[in-house]
Amino acid sequence: MALLSVPVDVFKHSSQKSPYFARFFSNLEDLETAGLNAQLVFAPGLLAVLGSPTPPTLEFLKSLPAALLDLWAIYLFGLEKQGCRPLVYVGSGTSAAKGRVLLRMKQYDDGFLLPTYIEDALEEGYTITNKGLLCWMPRPGPAEVPVNRLLSLVLEATFAYIFWAMRTPKGGDYGMTHICPWDTNTLEWDGLCTHCCLNEGIRADFDLTPEQLEAQAVEREQKRLAVKAENATNWHYKQMAENYDEYIGKAGERVAKSRANNPGRDAKHQANRVEKALADKTFHCDLCDISFGTKQNLQNHEKSKKHLRKADEKNNPIKCRPCNLGFASQGNLTRHEKTDRHRRAVAAANAARSTADHDMSDLTSADKTDRHSNAVAPVYAVEASTDHDMSDLSNADKTNRHSNAVASAYAVEASADHDMSGLSSADKTDRHSKAVAPVKRAESSFDRNKNTLTRWLQSDRPVNVVAPAKAVKSTIDHKKNTLARWLQSARPADRPADDSAAAQSSSQLN
């Protein structure tokens, strides 16, 4: 903390300064205590440079550490222009907001709230070439803000004089050139600071207790956020109404400049927003049960044919269950069934069904019973939903609905009943072994369906519906007889186990 002895000399020679400095920092011991309590840190190598008989170079200024998040700091900027002397500026970032130093430096990048002579220098063609920290401290709590802000102003004034970052007026030098350890004429730069910050007003309440400062900080933050939102809204709508072209043009320039200084940042932020919106279902279509990453995508979906067809579902009674879509006519459904989308949905449903029908040979009897109980419930539920009430349909509609179902059943049967003439006896036996278990399940299903159809045929049904139902019954009988004959066919002599299984299956079918 040896550097803190310099401010004492600054106080002594400064004719205009706040009385709070004398109240809290009457001697060197007070300054050192404040520095320790604030956890003040100086830039590496800074004290060695200040003790050197030769002034620091621009390279040293460029080597100062960059700003970190959530710090209060004293910073130094360097500006350069081809063919002109470099310029330096010393300032401080001591707002109560989180990440104040980083936010302040971003304002320089965006051209917002610039000091007068920095703005003039940028307009003359200078560019900011380095932004480094001379010293810093963690952002203090509300109770420590008054003293730490006072300490920050002391350090800002001290470093502005040490590095002579002052814009020297004609005929004067503020009476502070002796604070600079070197001849100011030997420095490689000129200054841009216009005044001593010790003369500035101090944004702090020094007469409140720590508890009062804490409560005040909470109240001020709530008020700040409310006023900020109101002012931003009012200003935006006023500019949109009265100064649209200039307002939008400048906003576009600021956005472009900010994106150029931080390439990829906006894309990353947008990706994070989309990911969060999908996870939280912020933009969700309840009707279609689909979530979107942005509000615009949700609005686009709500205008799509799929959503509108879903919204008008009462007028689309004919359903495609694999695709969960409704259609107004059978012709529309037929055209849909020829599309790639429908084929993909059917393939996905078949794949899911195939995965679910896995081998249960490794399960215990209890597990099989539980698995069977769990599987039977949804099957019965589907059967019950499929055997829907046809009382509201005309005879012609019933006949068409049945004809479509029979055609689909015949297509599945023809695909499954393939030619086995090219297989060897051993292959047939293997095929038989793998087929016995599902055949038994199919037999049970056939019997159940046959009984259901028998009862249904005995009920009071229209004549033009009975004939197709009888055809289905005949198809089931035919398939059962075919399976019985196939199981009774000759088996290879070297597979006695399979022969006995076949004989047992045949007797069960008979």
From TrEMBL:
InterPro entries: Matrin/U1-like-C_Znf_C2H2, Znf_C2H2_jaz, Znf_C2H2_sf, Znf_C2H2_type. Residues 499-510 have a biased composition (Low complexity). PROSITE patterns: ZINC_FINGER_C2H2_1 (PS00028), ZINC_FINGER_C2H2_2 (PS50157). It comes from the Eukaryota. Gene3D superfamilies: Classic Zinc Finger. Residues 349-370, 421-446, 486-510 are annotated as: Disordered. This is C2H2-type domain-containing protein.
